[in-house]
């Protein structure tokens, strides 16, 4: 039998729900009472504890609630409607601690607020308010509590009104230009964008990372690294939250912080401190410099094989029973390089490490992005900027299968991206692809027979995934349930990641014919929401299933943390309120592992025998992580600086890994890269 307190709360919730239903039914038709706030992104000034998060005030459940921290005034609760709306009504259902004095406010940008309703005599309970005004953001701003103790408790915060119907994005800003460049700053300006309603802000990005939002058409960007190359572009945004395509790129070269023509001294005392069958550990004495040493490079046989910021490195991917000769060079902030150290020779042992020797299967002048395997054991990969598919045998023989039609680039990360082979390829010959078009990203399938794409076989399965210069997502993976899982990016519309009717910033789940499975968590909501498996992601780049059928996912953060996630059905992973574990993260699904963006920028992932392998771009290394049920255990790194940026890793049919590099991948120009497809022995 339920405790008396629980029975009283249950009865109260039921009674309040009945009152709420009566109020909704009684609303006049002229008020256009369309509920706009339910399930939308919401933030709060404070939260008093687990199970009382802000999102519970807009979940439509009268048995849950948000509660602010005790004794803190003022307190606020803010909901993002996703589009500009004209308000007609706000309904507040308070818990046992209400607000005597509060305001309901609206804003187009969550910065400047306009009061739509104000009172100093709030009665608590259920308040049904006729309000006016318009905005994308609506805020409850409480300044005085009904009770002297406790915080504010809101069971439901419901906003009603009419949306503007504005779905057209602004034009891209034009003529982005730079001036007054210093070692750490630059002034940017651009011509205004146009919009059918009106542009409200501009968002400045540096190589895909958000920098700031401004109201005007110029700004100064600070905090740049001296003696570096920095690429900028700008997106325009309107009051409805529509985001334009990117402006032109402008590349800025910052000068050194001070003149420096003196190279560091050569590192001393290079020695091998340990060997295994497939690696050599090295250490050396620090070099000196008139300003400061910033990094070291390890070389062997005339090629760079590793890098380090300290005075040690482990060089992996070596062959057993083989002698290798290494040297080390030091670099300063300007890029002056020292003379090489004295060489040291070390011989690897017999046997094999968990991550063994590396052999090159092929080189490519384009960016090998997607990679999958055919039933005959051959790999097939997509060339992102050339828009074609290549078959690669385990011995390295290449066969071009053909160009995928209607693919375009984005002057950065768009193009022909992820690919996946049908689980029943032997009978249906289907290959699935994710690619950028002129207006969106989309999922298609096509037939491959006799080593060629069958003309006219392309079928478009899903359209409307947002595209932009960066944040296009693109990974595909068939699950053990026979469904196709699709990782998407937010298309540089961060708030859209929280909107389940927006296909960006999601993991989607499709039937092989492109229809939505009826057991998807939001299938009953209709629209795009019926495809959504999880949401609140920034830019999904890696998908892999473990031996228990669980889906793991890697995604790029902005400037703080990258993430490895264990995907939950219907789970909200928090972006943009939460990046990794930074920000307002209460109530969201937490990542299983995070890294600084400088050390990772993850791309593809693969799982072999409960070990997860993650390729990293900016970090230029391969991570190996031990999976222990639903947690992540030990971590090792391999190939740091050996092969440059790593794009995709996949388990080959023979149980080893294929790994693709991603050099020269910052534009959409075909055949200007220097990439490789590598075979990594697993022992």
Any overview of this molecule?
The strands form twelve sheets. Strands 1, 2, 3, 4, 5, 6, 7, 8 and 9 form a nine-stranded antiparallel beta sheet that branches. Strands 29, 30, 31, 32 and 33 form a five-stranded antiparallel beta sheet that branches. The chain has a four-stranded antiparallel beta sheet with strand order 13-12-15-16, with no helix packed on it. It is 4% helix and 46% strand. The chain is globular. The chain is mostly beta strands and 683 residues long. The protein is built from two helices and 50 strands.
In short:
The protein is mostly beta strands. The chain is 4% helix and 46% strand.
Tell me how many strands there are: 50
Q: What structural class do the secondary elements suggest?
A: mainly beta
Oligomeric state: single chain
Q: Count helical runs.
A: 2
Shape: globular
What is the alpha-carbon Rg in Å? Answer: 28 Å
| Percent strand | over 45%
Major pleated sheet: 9 strands, antiparallel
- DSSP helix fraction: under 10%
Q: Unreliable segments (pLDDT under 50, ≥5 consecutive)?
A: 1-32
Instruction: Give the N-to-C terminal Cα separation.
Output: 58 Å
Overall pLDDT: 92
Q: Descriptors for this entry?
A:
single chain; globular; disordered N terminus; 46% strand; five-stranded antiparallel β-sheet; 683 residues; nine-stranded antiparallel β-sheet; mainly beta
SSE layout:
Elements: H1 4-26, E1 34-35, E2 42-44, E3 66-67, E4 75-94, E5 99-107, E6 114-119, E7 126-130, E8 134-145, E9 153-163, E10 174-179, E11 186-191, E12 199-206, E13 209-214, E14 218-221, E15 229-238, E16 250-253, E17 268-275, E18 279-285, E19 293-300, E20 303-308, E21 312-316, E22 323-332, E23 344-347, E24 355-364, E25 368-373, E26 379-383, E27 388-392, E28 398-403, E29 416-421, H2 425-428, E30 430-436, E31 441-449, E32 452-453, E33 459-465, E34 476-478, E35 484-487, E36 506-510, E37 532-535, E38 540-545, E39 551-555, E40 561-566, E41 578-579, E42 582-583, E43 593-596, E44 602-608, E45 611-616, E46 622-628, E47 631-638, E48 646-651, E49 657-661, E50 675-682
Antiparallel strand pairs: 1-9, 2-4, 3-9, 4-7, 4-8, 4-9, 5-6, 5-8, 10-11, 11-14, 12-13, 12-15, 15-16, 17-18, 18-21, 19-20, 19-22, 22-23, 24-50, 25-26, 26-27, 27-28, 29-30, 30-31, 31-32, 31-33, 34-35, 35-36, 36-37, 38-39, 39-40, 40-43, 41-42, 44-45, 45-46, 46-47, 48-49, 49-50
